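ping. complex inputs:
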Amino acid sequence: MDNNFLYLRRLGIDTYQEPVVYMRHDCDICRSEGFSSQNRVQVSCGERHIIATVHMVRSDLLHHDEAGLSESAWLLLGAVEREQAHFSHPAPVESMSYVRGKLYGTPFSAEAAQAVIGDIRDGRYSDIQLAAYVAASADCLLGTQEVIAITRAMVDSGRRFDWGTSPVMDKHCVGGVPGNRTTLIVVPIVAAAGLLIPKTSSRAITSPAGTADTMETLAPVGMSFEHMRRVVESEGGCIVWGGSVSLSPTDDIVIRVERALDLDSEGQLVASVISKKVAAGATHVLIDIPIGATAKVRHAERARRLGEQLVDTGAAMGLEVRVQKSDGTQPVGRGIGPALEARDVLAVLRREAGAPADLRDRSLRIAAALLEMSGKVAAGEGAARAEALLDSGAAWKKFHAICEAQGGFSEPPRSLQQHSINAERAGVVAHVNMRSLARAAKLAGAPADKAAGIEMHVRLGEEVERGQPLFTMHADTAGELHYALDFLSAHPETLSIEEPVR
Amino acid sequence: MDNNFLYLRRLGIDTYQEPVVYMRHDCDICRSEGFSSQNRVQVSCGERHIIATVHMVRSDLLHHDEAGLSESAWLLLGAVEREQAHFSHPAPVESMSYVRGKLYGTPFSAEAAQAVIGDIRDGRYSDIQLAAYVAASADCLLGTQEVIAITRAMVDSGRRFDWGTSPVMDKHCVGGVPGNRTTLIVVPIVAAAGLLIPKTSSRAITSPAGTADTMETLAPVGMSFEHMRRVVESEGGCIVWGGSVSLSPTDDIVIRVERALDLDSEGQLVASVISKKVAAGATHVLIDIPIGATAKVRHAERARRLGEQLVDTGAAMGLEVRVQKSDGTQPVGRGIGPALEARDVLAVLRREAGAPADLRDRSLRIAAALLEMSGKVAAGEGAARAEALLDSGAAWKKFHAICEAQGGFSEPPRSLQQHSINAERAGVVAHVNMRSLARAAKLAGAPADKAAGIEMHVRLGEEVERGQPLFTMHADTAGELHYALDFLSAHPETLSIEEPVR
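pong. complex structure:
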C-alpha cells in the first residue's frame, strides 16, 4: 500500500462543472506520482471517488498535508472537512477513443454512445474532453442513426418513469422567446382533462428565467423522484425541476459546454429533448418551435429540418412527436423574469381582465393539439375543449392543486425598485431584440432575484406617443436597476420606434 | 466611467496554460456585469490586458476589493502585487465562427487560419475553445491546402529569422524515442562544414527530456532573438530553446491540448514542424521519422503519409524537405534523462572509447544527408565528409564554441543515488517498452532533476546472464529512486527477457 493520502479542504472555488483538485506542487504525492497541472487524478474516500483535474498550488494556500477541492469536486465526492483522501492515477477514459474515432470518420455506434454518455454522466470527462465530444457531434457530423443511439444512451444514463398506462402527454418549447411560459397553463388544462402530463423543466442557463425558475415563485420545484411520482399520481400533472429527479443527467453537462462554444449541435439538441421526454415516461409529445430573428430558431428551413429530426428520433424511441411552429419575433405576455412571468400565468389562469391574450392563445393552441393527440378528444374539438377547461376555472383549480401537492402555493414576490422606460419619439414599435431584453433583465438581477426583470407595455406594430411608457425595469436594489438602465442606454436597438408608414 | 476595479493578488495556482481570474461571487463587479464561473473576462492594467476564465470564490480566500490571478494569468498580464485592474466583458472571439464553420463542413481559408491562429497566440481562446479547434483539425477533417494555410498563419503569428543567404539547414525528429539526441551532434558537424544551421528545440512536455533540456546541462539554451542571431552569425549554428525566441508561439498552446485529448492531428503536427523551420529561416530540412511499436509513429504506412504531407507543405512554404525513416524500437544511446543523454553526446563528440555507436551512426546519417542536400557536398560523399568532421575533432571544437557563444560550456551533473536493475533470468532482451522507461525516468525526477534518469546497459537481441545489470536508475533523492523502482516492479514489461531461440 502506498502513502498517497492528504486531508481534504473545501477551498470554496467554483469552477462551475469541472471538478478540480488543488495540490501543492512540492507535495510527496505530486512528486512520486508525477502529477502536474491539467493531469487527471482519482480522489478516493473509501468507496466514494471522483476524477478531478489538478491545479498545482505554488503558494501557502494549502498546508503540506492538505489538498483543496473545488465546489463541484466537493459536492460530487460528498467530502467532509479534513477527511483523509487517497490520490491515484485514474484509469484512462477509454470511451474517448470513440470520440477520436468519430473525428477520424467512424460514426458513433450504439455501444460507443452508451460508453461515451455513461462516462460523461460519471464525471469522467474533463472540460476539454467534453468540448471534443461536442465538436465531434456538431451538425454536419451526426447522422440520424447516431442521434438515436445517443438519445437512447442518454435515457439509459438516468432514471426513468414508467406510468403503466398510455397516453402520457408532454410538451417542449425550443426556446429563445422570453415570457413564453405556456407550460404553466398547458399542464393544468391537460391534467384537468383527465390526462397524465408529468412535466419536467429546466432552470435558466443563460436566460433571465427558465420554466422551473418561474414555477418556483409559485410552488417548490425541487423534489425527489418519488415525490414527483406521488404528485403525478394524485393530480395527473406536475411542473418539476428536471435537475432534481435525475432524468437524462448528462444533458446539463453537455449543454454548458455547447453554450460556452456557442456551438448548437442540432443532433445533440434533438437527443436532449427526446431523451428527457422518454425518461419522463411520455408517449405523446408536442414541440413548439418559435421562429424569429432573435429567437433560437431563426429560419423556417431550420425549423423544418429540426422538426423532422425530432419526429424521426421520437419515433425510433416509441414516441409520437408533433411539431408546431409559432411566432418568435417578440416576447410573450408582459413579464420577463421569474415573478413577472408568473403574474402573467396567474392572470390567464384566473381569467383576470387584461390577462395577456398572446400567452393565453399560445397555451390554448398547444393544449388543444395535445388533447387531440391523446385520442381522448376528437380532431377539431381540442380548441373548444381546452378553452372550456380554462374558462370554467378547472385549469386554475388544477394548477393550485398541483402547487399544493408540490409543497404549497404562494403568490409571487414584488420588486422593490421600478423604473419606467418611455418613448423618446412618437412612432411605431418596429423591432424588439429579445437577446438585449434578456440581458437587461439579467443585469437587473433575474433569475436569482425572483422579482427582478422587465414588464413590457407595448407590442410590435403598436403606435406610441412621445413619452409613453414602453417597459418598466424591476429590481431589488438601486445598484442593479442602475446597471440594467446603463446597459439599455448603450443598446437603443433593444426596442426601436420608427416613423409610421402612412 | 464605471467602477469595475479590483486589486490583483497572485494566488500561486498553476492552471497550466489557461489564464484564470478568481473573483468573489458577491463582489460588485460580478453582480453588475453578471460574471459567473466559466465566463471569460477582460482584465486590464492600463494598456496591458488579458482575457481570462472566471472561477468564482465562495469563501474568504479573497478580500472584497481583491481578485486573484492564476500563474499563467499573472505572467501573461505582467501583473504587480496589489496593482489595480479593470474588469470588463471581452469582445467575443470572432474567429471561433471559423472553427464552428469547419465543424459544419467549411474548410479553413487562409483568412480563417490567420484569424484563428492569431487569436490563439493572443490567449483569446479558452481551453474548451482550443479543444474544439483541435477537434476541428483532426485527421480526417484537414486537407493539404488547409494545412498550408495554418502553417503560414503559424509562421506569421511569431517572429522570423532572415539570414539573407541560402542554403540554411535544419533538422527535426518526429520523436517518441528516448535518448535520440542527434541534434547535439548533427548541428556542430553541419556548422563545422561551413553551413548555417540555426536550430531551435523544445523542452520535454511529457517525456523525461527534450533536446533543449539535454542541451541545458551543457550550456544555456534560453536567450533572446537577438542573442540567438549573434550565436548563429558567429558560429554558424546554435541549439536554443524555441520557447525563448517566440518562433511559432501558438504551437505549444495547441500541443498541450492535443496531448490532453490524446488526439494527434497529422495536419497539425505538419503545420507545427514546418512553421518552426520557416520561422527559423531554414531553406533545407531533413526530417527523421523513427518507426516502432512504442514510438510516436508505429507503422510504415503512417510514416509514408506523414512524410508526404511534410514534403508537400514544406514545398508550399518554399522549403526543401527530405524525410528519413529510422529504427524506433529501442532507446538510442545509453542515457535517458538530460544529463545522462548529454554524456552520450559528449562521448560521441569527444570520440571516447565505448561511445554509443547507434547515436553516432544515426547522427552521421542525418548529417550526411544534410551536407548533400546543401549542395556543398556531392551526392554520395556526405557520409565520408560527416565522419571526417566528427573524427577530426572539428565537430567537438564547433560544439564547444557554440556552447561558449550561448553562455558557456559546462560538464553535465552526476546523480546522487543509483540503483542497478539486474536480469532475473538468463535469456535474450526481447522487448523494450519506451513509454514505461520514460515514465520510470520521470518518476526518478527527470527532467527537473537534470541528473536523474536511466542508464541502459543492454540492447534488443542481446543475450544476458541471470544477475547481469540491465539498466541503472539515477536519482537525486532516495524517495524518487524508490518511486521509480516501485513503478518498475509493477511494470515488468518495461524490459522483457525471453528464452533464446536455439
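The domain at 417-498 of chain A is CATH 3.90.1170.30 (Aldehyde Oxidoreductase; domain 3).
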